[in-house]
Model the fold of this input.
Amino acid sequence: MSKHVDDLRNIAVCGHGSAGKTTLVDHLLVKTGAVQGNPSVDAGNSICDFDEEEKHHKHSIEPAITHCNHGGKELTLIDTPGYPDLIGQTIGVLRGVDNVLIAIDGHAGVKVNTRRVWKEAGERGLGRILCITKMDDHSVNLSGLMDTIHEVFGPQCVLFNVPLGTGDDLKGVASTIAPAAGVNGAVMDLAHLGEKAIETIIESDDAAMEKYFEGEVPSAEKLMELAIAGVKAGSLTPVVCVSAKKDIGLTELLDLLAKVTLPPSAIERKGTKDGDTVTLKPEPTAPLAAQVFRTRIDPFVQKLSFIRILSGTLHKDDIVTTSGERKGLKIGQLLKVQADKTEPVDSAGPGEIVAVAKTDVLHIGTSLGEVELPPIKFPTPMVGLAVAPKSRGDETKLSTSLHKLAEEDPTIHVDHDEETHETVLTGMSELHLQLIQERLKRRDHVEIETHEPKIPYRETITQEAEGMYRHKKQSGGAGQFAEVHIRMYPFPEGTSVEEFASKSRFPQLKHIHYHEAGNFLWVDTVVGGSIPGNFMPAIEKGFLERVTNGVIANCKVQDVCVEVHFGKDHPVDSNETAFRMASSKAFAEVFKKAKPALLEPMVLLHITVPAGNVGDVSSDLAGRRGQMVGMDAAGGGMTTVEAKCPLSEVTTYARTLSSMTGGQGSYSMDFAHYEPVPGNVQADVLSKAKVRVEEE
Done:
């Protein structure tokens, strides 16, 4: 039977690496009786970190979906990886939940990924709760940490409980809102914190606020009701303290998750149906609307697609519509997932999360039902490696394995470079690529050789040019003939296609063809039938081959418009191959006349370091052609530097940052845009490309 939507709570457990997220979820599962035993990350028998790479590294690499029951609510807890390199996994999970429990290491404090998941959850309107972990660490300064939390996340973050004792003397936690009589040993003033918490809870309700200042304190039930409204509005962020290993604060945390987190009905979600925006109703009888938010390749049941039901009910053996497919999809057995274990269920309603196995047409972001749900936007991976199998004959095996990985993690891209015949693997960072290599070896038994990181430079032009190319080949019998005349124009990113491709610019305009991927536009102004219309698709194919393979450095071309305005054909010798060759050669010839230039990818870095290291970071960035664009206090003596830098200069930045800061620094990196390459760098890139072509 499907559960009632108001009895469900979907919660992603997020935060920076080593904040104790996995240990926390493991112990919550044991505490509620959902699993048995004494799971431990260190001992290698964690419930959530069941993958061999996770056991080896002793940290999460992929999300683990679990569930338990407490206080009449079914809690789905999704443990997520904590390192910024694996943020793509977390972003997918955020589409499947309504709340985020952000774990903060009581000793280490707020780190770069703590801030990142806070921001990502806020942008999605999810409920946010902070959980300070490892409270048994003798070095925890709760008062100082709360100052940092208020500085970074805002004054609406209020303690719902505080520890009784510190370090080895930690004996429990005390509620700030309803402290038990005779409580001793609280590390902060309970009365003051309770007053602050209650005022923050009732802030959004004028009537409750007025009564409170008249001396009437709302009942515990009313406070929890108002707390849900505050969490939904973002005017309240509960903060709780736990020590998972000492089993302290876990019951209080479970109570809070059951009472204060948002039910699936609290968040309004929209989709598109027949071109119109519709608001989804989280009702079991409503039309089905669901989305795949995670994929896992399981060695036993093969591919598992995890689906969040947003509206309606999904039954096993249903035939449903899926985005991008004309045929209906028959859904097989639905599965309820507990980490690496599954059990069959017959149906799932709004708010529920289930998995289906062995369904090739389902991918992360696929919508099920008549409503098209918004795509899930993932960060752009920028650090690449050319890869090849160590053992000859493993090419097919490697290709299959790489595409499995890309299916699981959308921040992994796999491309085959037709020009260099290389397979290029692109990920978020050097560490990300290292983890991919380990997974290939352990799970798929494929070892690979790698070449230096491949930077995705782009080619473009800086001025207009025109020219032609005649392709003529005669070798007995029917030959080949085609002549194509073109003009080429710079087409900067952000230019309106409609405004650029106007009749005033192209008086003989017939057709336009726009390719968003490379911001490439080509315009057909051929008149008088000088090129028969049936050859135009072949001409386009020749252009696109050149856009993909480049002209001066074997890099993709972008921000270019080509006008085809004249040509010649032969009644016998002209064919599609001839016109494809002619258009490709014409493109290359005119491109070289149009003052070509290389563009390089720029990345935005958020670097969090001790305040004393900011000068070191600034000096180092200057040597990498980087530029600081902002700086914020991160609390706890830490500063976050925002900087823009060429990707080619920071592919191994993790090593440098660790060395500069004694391991205290952390950073995240996102693609920003492309910029022209300085002359000396362009000359170096072009010379290497020339050498590579000559070698081939």
In short: The mean pLDDT is 92.
